[in-house]
Amino acid sequence: MAAVAAVLPFAVVSTAAHAVPTAQARLATAASKTPNRTVTAIVQFKPTFSEKAATKLVRAHGGKVTSKVPFIHGLAVKLPAKQAKVLAKDAHVVGLTLNSRVHSTGLDANRIATSYPKTTRADKLWQRGITGAGIGVGVIDTGIAGDQPDFKDAAGNSRIVANVITSPGAKTPGDGFGHGTHVAGIIAGDSSHRPVGDPFKGKYVGMAPGANLIAIKASDDAGNSTVLDVINGIAFAVDHKDQFNLRVLNLSLAADTQQSYKTDPLDAAVEYAWQKGIVVVVASGNRGTAADAVRYAPANDPFVISVGGIDESANNGRGGRADWSSTGVTQDGIAKPEVVAPGAHMVSVLAPSSAFQIMCPNCSLGGQYFKAGGTSMAAPVVAGAVALLLQARPTLTPDQVKALLAGTDKPITGNAPTAGLIDVERALYTQLNAVPAVNVRLAKNLLIDYANRAGVDISRWTRSTWSSAPGQFSASWARSTWSCGTCTAMGGAIDPQRSTWSRSTWSSAGEDASAEAAQYVQPAEEAEDTGSLDAPIPTDATELPADDATAPTPTTDEAPEVVQ
């Protein structure tokens, strides 16, 4: 309960949110005010500088290495704040960042509107058997409550193919906070597999209800996480990309320190995943039009797909940009986000007995679903759309996926013309030569650029050790459960500085769902009496696209049922 109390309960974030210090300013402040205080930092070295030499340099500044940092030729170190500032200026150091906290990007809205599969035209693809089947989507978040029926297939098997723990502070598998489960439900939930007679059967369906999920728990059980925890989660995704056909990675989170994407370690990690063929989808943030709205990793990286949120009920039902959705220009002059998707009034799977349910009981629908909103909820809409595209067109590269989504989007009221609402059906049937190329002539993150020019595979220098998780982490609902052998500090102890420099909460604001919950009371009572309910109404048949000759052949699987 102490951790829950640390979360600001369901307050709408003002569009005039206060800017926080830059990474450089935060380091300077720490060095000035508490010069002798031990801090934890992520240090990025030049690719030609060996690990042995880097370790020696850290020791020369009164520090010690606690672990390697995947992808960026870096080390996690502990040293006095004053020495951290000095080390940052060393010629062998590309960048030094205090291991800052990350937070989710969800907040509240007003009314429920669960029509996002129709708004994005995902339902048109379902009718042709395109449900994301066979595509793995990694969810780096607070975990997933994988025993919920929404994450099973028609045969009752779990679609969570891997459960991964990268936070040294986690004590259990699953999701004790609730954020990751809500996000996962938007990506790939499918209530049509709930038992006969369940009043929720067929009511709530995610964008890609046939996709597999890789649950990457990068937080402790109270939702506290750090940049390093997230980077290690990205490392797992890259290391096991082929094993799980992991083609998509969703990050509904943001670092709490603004920094140029060229030197930010989290931006380096997402760029590396992108280079390795993984489509990275991130939430743009909930700072509205504030000056620093889009200056936080990973949403400020120009290569990945950053997603803003719309309110489908705005503008007299025609939809419009949600005023909390971050939009603007990064510190490097990049317009963000690239696309927008529904993010307000989103109903998705609730992790039982999670902090979500405790913080807002009225946001719960029958203890099974939860209503919330924010760009945390808009990003998984796009991640699910990407899974649909990749099932139908598996040879698409990340750049091509981004080009198709951004090149076929639709203008939305109140939003910049460069960021429209995705139309996944239109994207599916559009030729690549009909949309502008993306990510052309962009400067890479300096760590990535240095490594490329030096011919260094940075994953080899910083690869984590993955193994089957110990008993307390094993999850019966996952086909495999993994833990990170090198994610803990040396000696096996959790770094106590995490709570000082790196504490965060993955808060997602809920909404009063009591009116919606009431509609299920009578059906639930009838189900108890009769043991059955009327089946949900199937999606109406529609005309195939004009270019249906090139359309994928439908599978024999039945399309998921949804309520109109």
UniProtKB/TrEMBL annotation:
InterPro entries: Peptidase_S8/S53_dom, Peptidase_S8/S53_dom_sf, Peptidase_S8_Asp-AS, Peptidase_S8_His-AS, Peptidase_S8_Ser-AS, Peptidase_S8_subtilisin-like, Peptidase_S8_subtilisin-rel, S8pro/Inhibitor_I9_sf
Record-annotated Peptidase S8/S53 domain positions: 132-409
Spans annotated as Disordered: 495-564
Extent of the signal sequence: 1-19
SUPFAM superfamilies named in the record: Subtilisin-like
Composition skew (Low complexity), residue ranges: 498-518, 538-557
Residue positions of the active site: D141, H179, S376
Molecular functions per Gene Ontology: serine-type endopeptidase activity
GO biological process: proteolysis
Record keywords: Hydrolase, Protease, Serine protease, Signal
PROSITE patterns: SUBTILASE (PS51892), SUBTILASE_ASP (PS00136), SUBTILASE_HIS (PS00137), SUBTILASE_SER (PS00138)
A Pfam family of this chain: Peptidase_S8
Signal among keywords: yes
Family: Belongs to the peptidase S8 family.
The protein, known as: S8 family serine peptidase
Species assigned in the record: Solirubrobacter phytolaccae
Taxonomic lineage: Bacteria, Bacillati, Actinomycetota, Thermoleophilia, Solirubrobacterales
